Prior knowledge:
Blueprint: E1 2-4, H1 15-27, H2 31-47, H3 53-64, E2 70-75, H4 86-95, E3 101-107, H5 111-116, H6 129-139, H7 144-150, H8 154-168, E4 173-177
Parallel strand pairs: 1-2, 2-3
Antiparallel strand pairs: 3-4
Amino acid sequence: MYIYCNYKQQIEQSVLNLITSLLKQLVQDHVVTYQRVKDIYKRHKKTGTRLILDDALSMLRLETEKYSKVFIVVDALDECSEVDGTRGRILAALRALTSTVNLLVTSRDLSSIAADFQETRHLEIYARDDDIRKYIESRVPGESRLAKHVDGHPMLLEEIVNRIVENVQGMYVPYIFS
């Protein structure tokens, strides 16, 4: 299961929405479980109420307990809103799940996130400038909007590549904990 945090969707990416996304991924291929979750959905729809976070977390906890191992990937945690507390609350919720849950969290190297993972195993991975350069140079010809502008203009392509390499600055640092 996975959560992809996107800074452009911070408003939609509430703790409740992220947890229910994980729940959906976990149960959607299992008819018996899905029916139980579907019944809860129908009950809320009938009464005009919304699922609350505690109920969603309880259901996710119950469903994860059915497996010997569950893997959850949280990609780009640094892009999850910190202002309204979403980042901290989603981490707390995921850490409170059963011992069968293993988490892989990726993030840029931010001190606020590093503090949350002081006691966990982590692996720092940085993209090398040469790798980024090769990737961008291979992608530009396939991007029609860019290709028509750089075709025959090698200096423009070089400028694009240099700016991207300059701004990436190593890419991200994944944190692993289980």
